[in-house]
TrEMBL record:
Keywords: Membrane, Transmembrane, Transmembrane helix. This is DUF6220 domain-containing protein. It comes from the Bacteria. The keyword Transmembrane applies. The keyword Magnesium does not apply. The chain crosses the membrane at residues 7-27, 39-60, 67-85, 91-112. It comes from Neobacillus pocheonensis.
Length: 118
């Protein structure tokens, strides 16, 4: 069971990483007015839901301290990502982009940690 959940965690983190690349593309579509930011907003919220599922899988599968820690960090970063835009300070809003990089880095770490776990 532990092995299966570890594999599920691995494949889900690959899916999230792929969706993050698409999310950056959607941001670009918004910036260059090829589409509205709505799709970027919805994908961001779906990514948050997926990251919570990823954390639950890590916890149930007892995938190890590092994987659980970085899965929690991914949830935290994705949670604060929209909040950064709701603070009326351009400086804080700009952190949305840097936090986006932190999200990609965290997810990349999770993908490359498999199957070592701890
Ligand atoms: C991991 C990557 C990212 C995630 C998960 C993410 C997520 C989100 C979410 C959830 C929102 C909606 C906020 C809300 O309305 O409450 C949003 C809005 C926005 N994002 Fe991102 N974002 C990411 C990267 C980027 C990047 C790289 C840019 C670069 C331009 C960007 C630009 C924006 C802008 C300008 C808005 C506001 C759109 C509006 O006017 O409603 N985001 N993002």
């Amino acid at each position: 069971m532990k092995r299966i959940l570890s594999n599920v965690h691995y494949f889900l983190s690959i899916v999230i990483l792929f969706c993050l690349v698409v999310e950056f593309f959607f941001a670009g579509m918004g910036v260059f007015q090829a589409a509205s930011f709505k799709i970027h907003q919805i994908t961001g919220m779906l990514l948050l839901v997926c990251s919570v599922i990823l954390l639950i899988v890590a916890l149930i599968g007892r995938t190890g301290g590092k994987i659980i820690g970085f899965s929690s960090l991914l949830v935290l970063f994705l949670f604060i990502q929209p909040l950064l835009l709701h603070i009326n300070q351009p400086f804080v809003k700009a952190i949305h982009l840097v936090n986006g990089l932190a999200i990609v880095a965290t997810c990349t770490y999770l993908v490359y940690s498999w199957p070592k776990g701890d």
